[in-house]
Amino acid sequence: MSKKFFEERGDQSEVKARIVQKYFVAWANIVVGSAQKWGGGKIAYIDLYARPGRYKDGAASTPLLILEKAIENDRIRGSLVALFNDVDENNSSTLINEIAALPGIDALKHKPVVNCNEVGQDAEDYFSETEIIPSFTFFDPFGYKGLSLRLVNGVIKDWGCDCVFFFNYNRINSGISNPMVKQHMDALFGVERADELRAKVNGANPALRQEMVLEELSNALMEMGGKFVLPFRFKNDEGRLTHHLIFVSKDFKGYEVMKEIMAKESSTEDQGVASFAYSPADETMPFLFEFQRPLDDLEELLLEEFAGRSASMVGIYREHSVGHPYLSRHYKNVLGKLEEAERITVVDPEGKKRRKNSFADRLIVTFPGAS
Questions:
Q1: Which domain holds residue 308?
Q2: 325, 293 in Cβ contact below 8 A?
Q3: What percent of the chain has pLDDT over 70?
Q4: Do residues 288 and 207 touch, judged by C-beta distance below 8 A?
Q5: Helix, strand, or coil here: 125?
Q6: Of 234, 244, 334, whose CA–CA distance to 293 is shortest?
Q7: In this structure, are 227 and 277 located in the same domain?
Q8: By percentage, how much of the chain surpasses pLDDT 90?
Q9: Is residue 162 within 8 Å of 156, Cβ to Cβ?
Q10: GMT-like wHTH domain: from which residue to which, for each copy (predicted)?
Q11: Would you say 139 and 147 are in contact if contact means Cβ atoms under 8 Å apart?
């Protein structure tokens, strides 16, 4: 079998690639204008575990899909700096050939760069100590080697920089209590948090153990400075969680855009609220528990958390939606129902006539005081 191909493409791979590809296009269209005006006109896509570019069946994987989208877009193709890396020389050389064969590749102003390096301390140091141009970074390691909080923080620390990484839960689960890979687990969770996690998972049932791992990783990322963390999960054919896709950003706009994308890629929803995950999380893990809320909960959540306050619809949405599965339309829908039931008062600060069944961002909502 030729080494230019890697694992069979499955549903997980297709969904993962679509999420990354869709976000890249949305992110690039948002930041490219400011980059052209203030930042020298360049934006970057970085993939440090790029692999050879195609699956066994010949289908393009994420690196080629990203470049195809860049080629199609006038604004992006003149600004994009694409940096790919893979530690395997066969993967790197094959990816170079696959990129060269892409139709329209010469339309890119900056030729994609493909390196062959191990992801480790050098990468951490570079991204931590170097100011980088607006970048969207994707990590997709086979296991966990090279993936660390310091590396993630390094690629999101500067303006316009977001990151998403795909990790194999089974590999990390087996590594948590393995002293042979303690260094890698400490780098991923932080030393203190990793020690606490080892104690917590000892004896825990598999489902609860899964949630503990993701809860602690999400909290570690937020404490590190990734203000907005969004998890998306994948099951195998037997219904078991196997992989997670984690988005990390310091900007609400990126969080909002990725949430919309992940919601559409979710396989199930409850009352119009996307699942994002298949999780038995409970109140002992508040970050994950909040992502299991059905729409019915939103009314009482708002009445309780905004009791005695006045705020605009968009202000309510921006403040409350972080850490919850709800989208802007859910807030408008629920606030409209609360207004109809006369449980809140709504004023248009501009005094405009309101369209039926609409709830504009500017509307000021006043909630009753706590009972």
A1: 293-366
A2: yes
A3: 89
A4: no
A5: helix
A6: 334
A7: yes
A8: 57
A9: yes
A10: 278-351
A11: yes
